[in-house]
Amino acid sequence: MRVALVQLASATDSATNRQDIRSQIAVLSAADTLDLVVLPEASMHDFGAADHDLAAVAEPLDGPFVQLLGEEAQRLGATLVAGMFERTDGLPFNTLVVVGPDGALRQTYRKIHLYDSFGYKESDRLRAGDIEPVVLDIADTPVGLMTCYDLRFPEHARALVDAGAEVIAVPAAWVAGDRKLDHWRTLLAARAIENTAYVVAAAQGGDRYTGHSLVVDPWGSIVGEAVSAPEIIRATLEPEVVAHAREINPSLANRRIRTQP
Q1: Where are the beta strands (DSSP E) in the chain?
Q2: What does the alpha-carbon distance between residue 15 and residue 109 come to, in Å, rounded to a whole number?
Q3: Per-residue pLDDT band at 260 (split at 50, 70, 90)
Q4: Does residue 261 have a pLDDT over 80?
Q5: Residue range 114-135: mean pLDDT, rounded
Q6: Structural contact between residues 106 and 138, judged by C-beta atoms closer than 8 angstroms
Q7: Confidence (pLDDT) at 258
Q8: Distance CA 72, CA 99 (A)
Q9: Hey, which of 5, 30, 119, 245 has its CA 20 to 30 A from 48?
Q10: What is the pTM of this model?
């Protein structure tokens, strides 16, 4: 599977963000033969200040943001995953949308674990999704979806792997702060190692967020990493690497303690 992670810095202007996304990924083309392009959490619209009304800017699943993704997915012949705020009759969802190469919406994942931590309370502005792992096949590879704070819950990643995932995609807007970059790198590597899976994490950059989009292989080695500026990281994920890691390190098969349904 050939993947590209798009690191960007969203603004609190949805139209500007759509233009920025289009211009940033213009360097990609169908000739790159990409299978999967991952953009960050909140690519549609930044979280903004704590009093910024996300319900007022949230969009439906057939709105201009998803339409843009559909156009770009068709142009690239690839599946796109990106984060948006999804309109409801109350608080919006923090939603990942998956748009296929034909431009059609394939799947959604609504963030389960809201970021009520480090002095912030995401649940004041957004509603949590149902507790259900989302895994789908992309280019014959099962890909599980998580969003940002979900990364801190190892049982979530394990549920994705138990549902068949060999790759975990993690769009994020990981807020910068003391030790936060260390947490980000460590947790991504841990989720890869303990699940013998690839982890591909597309992050918001800029001053507010840590940036450092990462591709981590099933051994926990960093395959590619951005810094803080807008950047595109490319990588090829090999199913043989997952199979070999699971043969040499059969920790999934050796489990004796399992979460009860």
Answers
A1: 2-7, 36-38, 79-86, 93-99, 105-110, 135-138, 141-145, 167-169, 198-201, 214-216, 222-225, 231-236
A2: 23
A3: low
A4: no
A5: 96
A6: no
A7: 79
A8: 9
A9: 5
A10: 0.97
Please report which residue ranges of 112-238 form alpha helices under DSSP H. 154-162, 180-195
The answer to whether 181 and 228 have CB atoms below 8 angstroms apart is: no
DSSP symbol at 238? -
How does pLDDT run across 177-196, given as a tens digit for each residue? 999 999 999 999 999 999 99
Distance of CA 64 to the CA centre of its chain: 20
Q: Side-chain half-sphere of 212: how many Cα atoms within 13 Å?
A: 19
**Over the stretch 3-38, which tens digit does the pLDDT of each residue have?**
999 999 999 999 999 999 999 999 999 999 999 999
User: By the 8 A CB rule, do 48 and 18 touch?
Assistant: no
Which class for 224: exposed (0-12), middle (13-18), buried (19 or more C-beta within 10 A)?
middle
* CA–CA dist 151, 12 (Å, integer): 25
What are 67's two structure tokens?
């339409």
Location of structure tokens 């840590």:
210
- Pairing status of strand 105-110 against strand 93-99: antiparallel
Class of residue 66 by CB neighbours under 10 A (exposed 0-12, middle 13-18, buried 19+): buried
Please, what sign has the CA dihedral across residues 190, 161, 25, 107? negative
Q: Are 141 and 165 in contact (CB under 8 A)?
A: no
> pLDDT tens across 210-233, in order?
999 999 999 999 999 999 999 999
